[in-house]
Amino acid sequence: MREFAATLKLPGERGPGLSVSVFLDDDTIAIRTGSVDLGTWPRTQVLLRAEDDGIHLRAEGEEVILHTDDDALFAVELGLRHGPPLLRRRMAELWRERDHDALVSLPPPRPTGPEPVPDRSSPKGPSPDTMTSCDVGCCFLPLSAPGCTWR
Questions:
Q1: Which residue, among 56, 57, 21, has the nearest Cα to 36 in the 3D structure?
Q2: 118 vs 45, 122, 146, CA distance in Å?
Q3: Inter-residue contact 4 to 24 (CB < 8 Å)
Q4: What is the DSSP string of 90-114?
Q5: What are the residues facing 24 on neighbouring strands?
């Protein structure tokens, strides 16, 4: 479970907001302040959107605005793909880092051996006397071609 320190405000509210902790896992979002649980919701029942003033969370007909120290990481963890331009740029940097880290951690590719060198001594393609149409009649394959089903 991932934890984010955040401030929570209602839309239109001024001031510092309420200090909360937001807990994310694959299935739920939970908001707590101190030992008080403000709410726990399945992710499928929460609407999320990134705006200039923070991440808007709508659940059970109520909307709150969450602002963290790293809204881009918070948005990426929430699975958001849209938002204000500055936030999207910071999110893109995180995605690139994650892609790079994922690529670095991949095992090296297995060698497959040398690729065959095509024979360029004869004219391109097989001669007409070794060709036949495929079962459907839409293309031609050499009679000796691998995968040729006409025999």
A1: 21
A2: 58, 10, 15
A3: yes
A4: HHHHHHHHHHHHHHHHSPPPPP--P
A5: 2, 29
Residues in a beta bridge with 142: 131
- The packing angle between helices 71-78 and 85-105, to 10°, is 70
Q: Are 66 and 59 in contact (CB under 8 A)?
A: no
Contact 22, 13 (CB under 8 A): no
What are the tokens at 98? Answer: 């994650």
State the DSSP string of 16-85.
S-EEEEEEE-SSEEEEEETTEEEEEEEGGG-EEEEETTEEEEEETTEEEEEEETTHHHHHHHHT-----H
Q: Which two tokens stand for residue 130?
A: 């070794």
List pLDDT tens digits, range 77-131.
Answer: 888 888 888 888 888 888 888 775 554 454 555 555 565 666 666 555 555 555 5
